[in-house]
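Notes continue from the previous slide.

Worked example: a multi-chain complex. Inputs as given:
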Amino acid sequence: MNPAPKVKKLLNDPDNAVDEMLEGILLAHPDHLVMSDEHNRAIIAKHGPRPGKVGLVIGGGSGHEPTFVGFVGRGLADAAAIGNVFASPPPDPAIACAKAASGGEGVLFMYGNYAGDVMNFDMATELLAMDDIEARTVLTTDDVAVENLERRRGVAGNFFIFKAAGAACDKMLSFDECERIARKANAHTFTMGVGLTACSLPQTRVPSFELGPEEMEIGLGIHGEPGVRKGPLDTADAVTDEIVDTILAEMDPEPGEKVAVLVNSLGATPLMELYIVNRRLNQRLKDRDISVHASWVGPYCTSLDMSGMSITLHRLDGELTGLLDHPCDCAMFRVGQ
Amino acid sequence: MATLNGADFVALFHAIAQMIEREKDHLSALDGVIGDGDHGVTMSIGFQAVDKALADEAPDRTPADICMLAAKTFLNAVGASVGPLYATALMRAGAAVKGKSDVGPEDVADMIAAMAAGIEHRGKAEPGQKTMVDAWHPAAEAALGAKAGGSLKDITAAAADAGRAGAEATASLVAGKGRSANLGDRAVGHIDPGAASAAMILDTIAQWASERAD
C-alpha cells in the first residue's frame, strides 16, 4: 500500500474521540442535554420525556454531527443512542434511551436502514419487551440513489422524518398515530447526494476511498462508502440538475405542490457552494411550479470531513406542514418560539 | 485426546486479538474498497475489549462462561454489524458446550458449527451473498465433516482451509447484504472484508489448536 500522508485532524487518543466529543457537547448544551445514568452513550433531552407521551429514540453511528444528538430536545427526539464512528450503537445505550424516553405509551425507534443498526435496535427491542416497554421501529429510507427499495438507506432526510415524528409525539398523539406519521414522513422524503472527496476515520486518518482529481461519487451514503457510480466532476448547476431530475422522477409531483428543502453539506463543502446549489434547486422547482415552504442550508447530516452535498425534498401536505412548523428546541436545532 | 479448559479459551481470544491488531489496517483497506473503511477498526475495538475483560477473569471459568463474557463484551464495545453477529455466534458457541469444564475435539466442531448458525440466523444471510457467512458456512461444514474421529488439529485445520477458500471466493460475488449491496458489479473483484477477517479468525483457531493437539 502507498504510505500516503495522514489526513490532519485535531484529536487526542482517536479511540476516545466519541466520548470526548460527547463530553464537549454536554458542556455546551447543559440546558438541553443530559447523559443517562445507565449508559454514557445514551443522551437524553432534559425537557423531552414526560408521562403519557410516546417516546422518540433516534440513533446511529457518530461522525454525522449534528445528526443524531443535535436533534435531541423538546418537540423532537427524546434521546439518542450514540455508536462509535460510523458504527451502530450496541443494544445497551438504545435500551437506556428507551427507558428514559418512555412515558408509558410506547417508544419509537427511528434510524437509518443499515444492517448493523437494524440488528442492534432489534436486540434492544427484544430485551425491552422483558421490561414491558413496547418499542416499535420506523426505518428511514430517503436515499433515492439506490433503486432497490428494501436497500434504501437513511441519509440527510432523517432531518425531516425525525422532525415530523418528534412533533407528533410532542402533540401527545397515540402510539399508532405517531408510527403512522413517522412512516408517512419517510415516504414523503427524498434525498440524493454526491461526494467530491472521501472522508477519513479518526483511527485511520486515511481517505476511505479513492477518487480521481476530476471525479465525483454519485449517490453516495453518509459513511464514506462509495456511491452508486462514479462520474466526471461537473458544474454546480449540472450536478444539481442530475439530483433534482432523479428526485422528481421518483416523487412525481403535481404543479402547485409544496416542499421543504434541505441542502446539506457532508462536512467539508462550504456554505458558498451549498447556496449556489440552492439557487439552481429553486430555479428548477419554480419551473415545475413547486413552491418552497421552508429551507435549511448547511451541515445537518455530515460524513466527518467528506466534501460533497446532498439535496433533500420533503413533500408537504397540510398535516406534514403543521408538524414541520411545530416548535422544537434542541441542542443544535430550533423551530419557532 | 486433547481437552481444552477456560484458560485455553482465554488464550485463544488473546491470540485472536493480537492477530486483529496486526491485520487491522489491511482489513480497513479491504473495507474501504467496497464498504466504509472501518472493519479493521471495529474488529480491533471489539477484540481488544474482549482481551481486556478476559484478562481479569478467574481461572476456573468454563469455556461456555468465557464465550458468553466475550460475546457480551464484544457486542457492547462495538455495536455495528459485527457486534450482534459475533455476539450471537459466541453465545451459541457457549451454549453448545454449556456446563462442561473441559471440551474435546468434537465439542470444538460443534462450537464452530454453532457460530456459523448464529451468524446466519442473526444476519438473515445465506452463503453466496458476499458476507462473512461465505467463510463461516463452509468452515462449519468442514468441521462437522471432520468431527467423527477427527483430532482437534484435523477439525480446526479443515475449518480454516474451507473458511479461507470461501473468503477468497467472495471476490467473484455480487453482494446481496450489507452496505456493499448497493454497489452491484462495482464490488466484484474484491474480497468481502467480513469474510476475510472470519478466515483469519478460523486460521488463528487452527494455529491455537495445533499448539494444543495431542
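Summary box: The first strand of chain A starts at residue 33 and ends at 35. Chain A has two domains: 17-187, 189-316.
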